[in-house]
Amino acid sequence: MTVEQKLWKNFNKALGQFQLIDEGDHILVGLSGGKDSLLLLEFLARRSHILKPSFTLEALHVRMENIHYETDTTYLRQFCAHLDVPLHIITTRFDDCQRKPPCFLCSWQRRKQLFQLAQEHRCSKIALGHHQDDIISTALMNLTFQGHFSTMPAKLRMKKMPLTIIRPLALCTEDDIRTYAESQRYEKQLKRCPYEKDTHRTSIQQIFQDMQQLNKEARYSIWNALEADDKLIEY
User: Fold this and answer.
1) How much is the pLDDT for 69?
2) pTM exceeding the 0.85 threshold for the entire prediction
3) Angle formed by the axes of helices 132-141 and 174-184, to 10°?
4) Which of 77, 166, 191, 194 lies most in the core, judged by the most C-beta atoms within 10 Å?
């Protein structure tokens, strides 16, 4: 089985296992420009050509004025045009006078733009490109720093708005996505975020790698614990 076949299989398995897409869905994809969101959009576009369930797609790319990294919006436009997916590009900024980490403020502002556009365009779901490694790392972060066992679920129904967050790459590993992205020659960001290595998440990811060195089944042990405790779907 090729890496592409493995990713496609796990993508479709997640759609079925977590019941991520329903007939008539209008899905807004958060397109950061990284390998994960590019793969997500490519696979969702491919899946939309299959008869059932019938759904439509749009994508949103948010640029942040006061975080000095760059994405090639020309490439993103071409990528979306090739997939016949409408792309929205919004440039915004956050108030950096607040006493909160820039990563938190940037993420919050991006989510705000996603939710706002999704409601304006009457989308039923927002699709994000988090993969299995992201979900496991979040569980380890919450356990280490928050004192509770929880994570980003594969499916989350919002309580204050008629939207559902879905993560169709929940069963895909980062290594497989990276290998596929390189084979497809996905273009990388022109300039990387200056804060991306300055977070607890980077340290947790290294701890997760160490855990897998200690026990090659660590990934599956943590994932099974999340499933057993019903942490992967929130209603």
Assistant:
1) 65
2) yes
3) 140
4) 166
Closest listed residue to residue 131, CA positions, set 176, 183, 182, 171: 171
Question: How does strand 155-157 pair with strand 164-166?
Answer: antiparallel
Distance, CA of 218 to CA of 129 (rounded, Å) = 22
Q: Are 29 and 57 in contact (CB under 8 A)?
A: yes
Residues with Cβ within 8 Å of 120's Cβ and at least 6 positions away in sequence, in order, are none
pLDDT in tens, 21-79: 999 999 999 999 999 999 999 999 999 999 789 999 999 999 887 766 667 889 999 99
- pLDDT 10s digits, 115-155: 999 999 999 999 999 999 999 999 999 999 999 999 999 99
- 3-state SS, the chain, equals CCHHHHHHHHHHHHHHHCCCCCCCCEEEEECCCCHHHHHHHHHHHHHHCCCCCCCEEEEEEEEECCCCCECCHHHHHHHHHHHCCCEEEEEECCCCCCCCCHHHHHHHHHHHHHHHHHHHCCCCEEECCCCHHHHHHHHHHHHHHHCCCCCCCCEEECCCCCCEEECCCCCCCHHHHHHHHHHHCCCCCCECCCCCCCCHHHHHHHHHHHHHHHCCCHHHHHHHHHHHCCCCEEC
183: its two tokens = 């084979």
